[in-house]
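Dear support,

I submitted the protein below through the web form. The confirmation email said the job was done, but the results page showed an empty box. After a refresh the structure appeared. I'm attaching both so you can tell me whether what I see now is the final result or a partial one.
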Amino acid sequence: MARDYRKEYDTYHAKPGQKKRRAGRNAARRSMMKAGRVRKGDGKEVDHRNGNARDNRPGNLSVMSRVGNRRKG
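What the results page shows now:
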């Protein structure tokens, strides 16, 4: 059966809570780009040490490889 992306967006990605988590992840990435720690296309991801995407305190953010960040979870 084919995946219904429209339904997936409507039932998960468009929820207010998920929008806030996504915005938190994007803000963390922007702050690390501004600090010069990551660049577009460098293969790095911003890790939230406590797992909370909305907690963007400097002590909670670190840079790691894409593989390492996805292996962690």
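Response: this is the final, complete result; the empty box was a page-load delay. Strands lie at 44-48, 61-65.
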